[in-house]
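Lecture notes, continued. The same structure-token format from the folding unit now serves as the input rather than the output. Read the line below as a description of shape only.
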């Protein structure tokens, strides 16, 4: 996947996430304060803990809907 394809995929997932939040505002309750969102494709493995130091990251697996990944 080229950098351009990767960026386009991430932008598309971001807009899909926004559309889902509009339809289901209760999703906001699953996002911790000051969290960085990380979208994971349904075909990609979940990233291991411990990367990125002590960043507050909320990971969402992207299938048909966005699902919070509990660590």
């Amino acid at each position: 996947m080229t950098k351009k394809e990767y960026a386009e995929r991430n932008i598309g997932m971001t807009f899909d996430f926004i559309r889902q939040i509009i339809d289901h505002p209760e999703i906001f309750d699953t996002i911790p304060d000051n969290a960085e969102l990380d979208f994971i494709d349904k075909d990609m493995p979940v990233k291991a803990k411990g990367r990125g130091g002590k960043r507050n990251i909320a990971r969402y697996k992207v299938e048909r809907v966005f699902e919070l990944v509990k660590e």
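Point for the exam: The radius of gyration is 13 Å.
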